[in-house]
Amino acid sequence: MAKKIRILSLDGGGIRGIITCVILKYIEEQLQKLDNPTAKIGDYFDLIAGTSTGGILASILLFPDNNKKAKFSVETALDLYAKRGESIFNVTFWQRVINPFGLFNEKISQRTLEKQLGEVFGNLQIKDFIKPSLITSYDIFHRRAKFFTSHEATSDLENFLVKDVCRATSAAPTYFEPALIKSLYGQEFTLIDGGVYANNPALCAYAEARKIEFSKVLNNPAKPDFPSISDMIIVSVGTGEVLKPYTFKQFENAGKVKWIQPLVDILLSANVETTDYHVKKIYETLGPRNAKNYHRLMPHLKNASSEMDDVSEKNIYELIQAGLAYIDQNRKELNDIARKLIKNA
């Protein structure tokens, strides 16, 4: 019996990735109850896509153990965000004095981020991921999208260190400097956060899945090659709905500087919503039953901050609470997702 291709897509959103972890942790717990007490969610998807913080999370979920299975649970990822987030996003008093509001250079030093990524991933290469990946970034020199796809990293030309991939996908403009990285072949790239065009990478993941011979890549003859949308289950997880209003009065006669931060906020939210609209419409062409194989999990932020770098203890607590509130209100759908993942293993 043919199995569906299970795709996990993870939005960008900085420290708000904690919400994603809370939701995925619940799904993982259901997998442990229903299928395997030691289940890790990375083993239950056939392709994982991520942008920015979602790209880092995807890399953690795809990290191999000695048996080429997922090494880390979602709880490990949640600990990483909650415990290391503060040091990654910390801006010292002196930096605030010489660089108020990030007007003169990037708000956050990339050195701490690079150190943390090095400690987590070491010299792991993307070709060693347990499943196909699609991690987004944007090449500002050649002016084109750059996708990191583990299933195509069969030569050094397309193979990269995971820590470099994570640095590239999370190089959010105004927060971090661009990433200057090299492939294992030695080709140099100047990259920024893939959120500039795909903060929600679900549509990119769909397009990538269409060209993969999954039966060969996964060594599973029950998996379809070059799958169509009817062959896919897509679980797309957001980092909290941002609906901050901007009034005409606020931006009447506003100059370039005043527009910078609101524009980043609006562009990131807009492409998240647009991608969801397009994927939903694609699934609607299949009829009511198959349309239910698209799951967009987008919680409300509740009392949490929409800022991507608010790592205060209070805000981390509120992000966790926002994730828990979403679980409480959507338990049936999340349980259904777990059952579908097991059925199509």
Please, could you describe this protein's structure?
A motif (DGA/G) lies at residues 193-195. Pfam families: Patatin. Residues 8-206 form the PNPLA domain. Keywords: Hydrolase, Lipid degradation, Lipid metabolism. The chain has 345 residues and is α/β, with parallel strands linked by helices. It has a single domain (5-340), classed as Cytosolic phospholipase A2 catalytic domain, CATH 3.40.1090. The protein has 14 helices and eight strands. Strands 1, 2, 3, 4, 5, 6, 7 and 8 form an eight-stranded mixed sheet that branches. Strand 5 and strand 6 form a beta hairpin. Helix 5 packs antiparallel against helix 6.
CATH names the topology as Cytosolic phospholipase A2 catalytic domain
Shape call: globular
Radius of gyration: 19 Å
Largest sheet: 8 strands, mixed
CATH architectural category: 3-Layer(aba) Sandwich
Task: Give the count of structural domains.
Answer: 1
Give the name of the CATH superfamily: Cytosolic phospholipase A2 catalytic domain
Share in β-strands: 5-15%
What is the CATH class name?
Alpha Beta
Domain PNPLA: 8-206
Motif (GXGXXG): 12-17
Motif (GXSXG): 50-54
Keywords: Hydrolase, Lipid degradation, Lipid metabolism
